């Protein structure tokens, strides 16, 4: 297929992962998710790149992925994914994925799949108790309710339907209090993932969600969320480790922290737990930070 890609604020889970095979190791995505600035949302090529790689390996779950953003992706142009087979071992399979638009590279990723086996088990302590996400306002509803206190660029973006449901433990403080520590906690889920049962699809959707709100953490000590439009934050690379199966349509608690920022960049680390306190994924990003 060579038609133009569709873009929008509310791409569903099934459309996000729908890839047309155009060659033995080539796949094309026709649905793009807008990040609110007219470019492709960063979680999209991670999710779609994993979905492409999954179609070239045995029925093993992905355990890690590292991607580099090379250019901003255009909303109206299909994304082509080329998978390179690097290794097929007894327990591990490695792939390289290149994402291109009109022949120009926009994203490259290395990912590895593992045939799970028995071994020692431990994880960090369960995160502190957070308010039940069902008792918290949806971030889009909160921003619409406080549109008179927010710049139009923020309330307008979040007023549109983004496919990830985000809930903050204390949205009032996050948006309107003085700059806080370089730490954040929030709940997230993707409702449209409920229609999918394949565990591999839910790994891809978790990868999609893992890019949401993470990059803003290094800026938290320097400006309020309500002033975030005064800083241009762009993800340079994204690494993700999967620790166990989970569902993207169920509530996930994300804790992020930034141990360092300087030289126009910031580092952020995140831990993603399910509602039972089980650590299901870890994420790290290096981001560019420029005051406007």
TrEMBL record:
Looking at the record, the residues that make up the Acyl-CoA thioesterase-like C-terminal domain are 158-287
InterPro entries, A to Z:
ACOT8-like_C (IPR049450), Acyl-CoA_hotdog (IPR042171), Acyl_CoA_thio (IPR003703), HotDog_dom_sf (IPR029069), TesB_ACOT8-like_N (IPR049449)
The record's annotation in Gene3D superfamilies points to: Acyl-CoA thioesterase, double hotdog domain
Query: What SUPFAM superfamilies is this protein classified in?
Result: Thioesterase/thiol ester dehydrase-isomerase
Tell me if Hydrolase is a UniProt keyword of this record. Answer: yes
Q: What are the record keywords, sorted? A: Hydrolase
Occurrences of domain Acyl-CoA thioesterase-like N-terminal HotDog (ranges): 37-114
Q: Does the keyword Hydrolase apply?
A: yes
Which domain of life, per UniProt?
A: Bacteria
Q: Which PANTHER family match?
A: ACYL-COA THIOESTERASE, ACYL-COENZYME A THIOESTERASE 8
Which family is this protein grouped under?
A: Belongs to the C/M/P thioester hydrolase family.
Q: What is this protein called?
A: Thioesterase family protein
Its lineage opens with: Bacteria, Pseudomonadati, Pseudomonadota, Alphaproteobacteria, Sphingomonadales
């Amino acid at each position: 297929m060579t038609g133009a890609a569709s873009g929008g604020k509310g791409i569903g889970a099934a459309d996000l992962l729908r890839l047309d095979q155009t060659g033995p190791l080539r796949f094309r995505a026709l649905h793009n998710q807008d990040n609110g600035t007219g470019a492709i949302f960063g979680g999209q090529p991670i999710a779609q790149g994993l979905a492409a790689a999954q179609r070239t390996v045995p029925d093993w779950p992905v355990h890690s992925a590292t991607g580099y953003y090379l250019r901003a992706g255009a909303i109206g142009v299909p994304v082509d994914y080329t998978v390179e087979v690097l290794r097929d071992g007894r327990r591990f399979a490695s792939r390289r994925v290149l994402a291109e638009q009109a022949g120009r590279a926009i994203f490259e990723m290395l990912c590895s799949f593992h045939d799970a086996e028995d071994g020692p088990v431990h994880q960090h302590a369960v995160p502190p108790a957070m308010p039940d996400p069902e008792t918290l306002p949806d971030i889009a509803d909160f921003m619409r309710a406080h549109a008179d206190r927010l710049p139009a660029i923020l309330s307008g973006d979040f007023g549109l339907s983004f496919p990830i449901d985000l809930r903050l433990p204390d949205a009032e403080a996050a948006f309107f209090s003085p700059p806080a520590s370089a730490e954040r906690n929030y709940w997230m889920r993707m409702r449209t993932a409920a229609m999918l049962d394949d565990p591999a699809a839910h790994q891809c959707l978790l990868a999609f969600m893992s890019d949401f709100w993470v990059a803003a953490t290094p800026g938290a000590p320097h400006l309020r969320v309500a002033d975030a439009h005064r800083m241009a934050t762009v993800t340079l690379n994204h690494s993700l480790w999967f620790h166990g199966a989970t569902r993207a349509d169920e509530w996930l608690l994300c804790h992020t922290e930034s141990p360092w920022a300087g030289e126009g960049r910031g580092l952020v680390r995140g831990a993603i737990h399910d509602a039972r306190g089980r650590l299901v994924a870890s994420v790290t990003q290096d981001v560019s930070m420029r005051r406007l």
